[in-house]
Design goal:
alpha/beta
């Protein structure tokens, strides 16, 4: 990041609006926010309407000429294209414009490199960077040199321009082995959680929707929560006791974004798969964002790609404190919805009630009198279920509760005793 505007890289944003797309302007707005997050100063933008992206230069010849003039007028250091560029496109644009050429993928990778703090996160980012650069060594040219510095040169993946493909391939193999070990460790952690029978709730959503703020509000996790894209990168898991007494595990996941680079999805699969193995997805939506519907679509598409679209979903329409007038957004793909402000705490109780309702639907209701000699079973209910009523009578302990199916079998040998 850079402290003053004079030191920040001056960039021009470049996009192509295809005939079947109507959100090119909004995508460029998001690209500008990404560029600011990376420390750049946006000094102009160029958007061309085309039937398809030019295979050689991304833009058409005429628009490329206009872009060259704009670079001279604004004294820009480089351009950032809103799509992932091929090596040929990078090389041709570099020859034509003689400035640093970046694309959306490189920009996101750069932000991730700056955000990664754990060893796992750093491994994932470096692997994604190297795979991106492997096929682009020629096209990127001197734009990756550390001598120039700035966006696209952070992180461990660009130690020197002359790193040849053999070295990159070797490093990728090493990182892949390390990531397999990370994945194995995560799998063991998941198996341990499964044995504990504590439900796991994965918080998912578009970047900057307020996931980390909500996790902090519910558990006091104390993780970084800023009004920036990808403010937090490394996942955090915390215990939460619901109002009914049941314990659950809340896991924060990396934020989704449109055109999320394929390299990142592959590298972060072990992290993103927390959603796949969760019992419930808590979808946090920035309901104050004009692009809310498109962002929700991106989240569900990404979940489908991760094979996690079959999970029950509770959608929390966040930032209620910014709502203007009568406003009631909907999500027809969710089992329940709640309107909250993670920042002020408004609506959080209603959200937790929704969580209890959905988890309860996955349980069996039991109503039974246990002899005092079986009092240990009450502790089993308290630990894994939801104890609604408990009365001590002459016959024994009367209990009404909701318990997981596998626990139900341990609580009674008489199926007629529960319902």
């Amino acid at each position: 990041m850079y402290e003053t505007a004079e030191k920040r890289e001056r960039v021009i944003l470049v996009g192509v609006s295809l005939a079947d797309s109507d959100d090119a302007e909004q995508s460029l707005d998001e690209l500008e926010e990404l560029a600011r997050t990376a420390g750049a100063l946006c000094v102009g933008r160029v958007l061309q309407k085309r039937e398809q992206i030019h295979p050689a230069t991304y833009l058409g010849r005429g628009k490329t000429g206009e872009l060259k003039d704009l670079i001279w007028e604004t004294q820009a250091d480089g351009i950032i294209c809103d799509d992932e560029l091929s090596p040929a496109q990078i090389g041709n644009l570099k020859d034509e414009l003689d400035v640093k050429i970046m694309d959306r993928t490189l920009l996101i990778l750069d932000i991730f490199a700056a955000r990664a703090s754990t060893s796992e996160g750093k491994i994932q980012v470096e692997l994604a960077q190297l795979k991106y650069r492997q096929s682009r060594l020629t096209g990127l040219g001197t734009s990756l040199s550390r001598l120039g510095g700035g966006i696209g040169t952070r992180g461990p993946g660009e130690k020197k321009l002359e790193m040849d493909r053999r070295l990159i391939k070797g490093r990728i193999s090493q990182l892949t082995r390390e990531l397999k070990e990370v994945k194995r460790h995560r799998q063991l952690t998941r198996e341990s959680r499964a044995k504990s029978r504590i439900p796991v709730i994965a918080i998912v959503g578009y970047t900057n929707a307020g996931k980390s703020t909500l996790l902090n509000a519910l558990t006091g996790a104390g993780i970084l929560a800023e009004d920036k894209l990808f403010a937090t990168l490394d996942p955090t898991t915390r215990n939460l006791k619901l109002p009914g007494g049941q314990e659950v595990l809340l896991t924060d996941t990396v934020g989704f974004i449109r055109k999320l680079p394929h390299h990142l999805i592959e590298a972060f699969k072990s992290t993103l798969e927390e959603a796949k193995y969760a019992d419930l997805l808590l979808h946090v939506v920035d309901a104050s964002n004009p692009q809310m519907d498109q962002q929700m679509h991106v989240v569900y598409e990404t979940l489908r790609e991760l094979e996690a679209s079959d999970k029950p979903v509770i959608t929390a329409f966040n930032k209620k404190d910014r709502f203007v007038g009568e406003y009631a957004p909907r999500d027809f793909q969710a089992e329940r919805t709640a309107f909250i402000s993670a920042k002020t705490g408004e609506g959080v109780e209603e959200l937790l009630a929704c969580v209890e309702d959905v988890l309860r639907e996955q349980k069996v209701e039991i109503e039974q009198i246990y002899p005092y000699s079986d009092a240990g079973k009450i502790q089993l209910i308290r630990k894994y279920g939801e104890l609604k009523k408990e009365e001590y009578t002459q016959e024994g302990i009367y209990v009404r509760a909701y318990v997981p199916v596998d626990v139900y079998g341990k609580l009674t040998h008489d199926p007629s005793g529960g319902r």
